Amino acid sequence: MAPSSEPILEVDGLVKHYPLTRGVLFKKQVGAVKAVDGVDFTLGKGETLGIVGESGCGKSTVAKMLCHLERPTAGSIRFKGEDITRLSGRALKAVRRNIQMVFQDPYTSLNPRMTVGDIVAEPYDIHPEAAPKGDRRRRVQELLDVVGLNPEYVNRYPHQFSGGQRQRIGIARGLALRPEVIVADEPVSALDVSVQAQVINLMDRLQSEFDLSYVFIAHDLSIVRHISDRVAVMYLGRIVEIGRDAEIYDHPTHPYTQALLSAVPMPDPEARDRRERIILTGDVPSPTNIPSGCRFRTRCWKAQERCAVEVPALAVPAVFRGTGSLAAHDSACHFAAERQAVTGEGGRRNGPA
């Protein structure tokens, strides 16, 4: 489903395979880790696209490819209509200025031997045209003020800050070049719950202030719903369901999404007691040996023979087309449907766990 605003980032058939080799002198490829295996989505200008999924599903690999920290094996990433996957040199440098990243761990993403002023000003050394040398200290202090830190902290070191403050420094560094797209790879997962809310609210405010588009990656479904306009659910290297937040959270049609949402903690004890929990059996398949057909079929209670031989397309299910229902959004399942109280082999439902 395309965003309502003008697309600024278009991802088509994105693939990243890491080769598995054998031998010392004469290495021979014997397989591949299929970290990302055909991802498609569009990011609109001023929009936030949330990407959720289990650990190891390929979310962070997608983030690295968007920022060109990893080169894709196949597929294309178009920024404002230009395919950036094959760029290099000055052309790549110019694009990187417009797509910046906020990393997951604020404790390791900042150089402990550099002051905060040097960390935030480092992008200006790579892109000197963004700020004259004599004006950089003032720019850095303005950025620290924007993210809620004391501008006089420019001479302090990262170890003198808390985790939430360090993540604010990382956000300030990401904003230094005035990018149009920020890729946030689990930016609050390493922070305390109270600090998470502060950082999320900060990013929400900065989006309107700097006219930013976000790709927001997380495994906390409640945080993703709070900040995202649309949500994409990933499983084993592919997007299995994508739509607006209300469509995904209130009308999920893919069994994997339904299982994820059934595990979200609920503060209301009565609602929690009434909820049926979907507990998936089996382990996530190895990305070196992905099941044929639908990759979720080995854990799915709806799986049939068709699922083993035919890869489901990410499209609006035929049963919902033209209905105007919130369930009419893209879902990669042959038997996509809103949640039903039916169980079978591969998953079971029970009360509160």
Automatic annotation (TrEMBL):
In terms of domain of life, where is this protein from? Bacteria
GO terms for biological process? peptide transport; transmembrane transport
Pfam families xref list: ABC_tran, oligo_HPY
GO MF:
ATP binding; ATP hydrolysis activity
Which parts of the sequence belong to the ABC transporter domain?
A: 9-261
SUPFAM superfamilies for the chain = P-loop containing nucleoside triphosphate hydrolases (SSF52540)
Keywords attached to this entry: ATP-binding, Nucleotide-binding, Transport
Its transmembrane ranges are none
Q: Which family does it belong to?
A: Belongs to the ABC transporter superfamily.
Protein name according to UniProt: Dipeptide ABC transporter ATP-binding protein
What is the originating organism of this protein?
Streptomyces broussonetiae
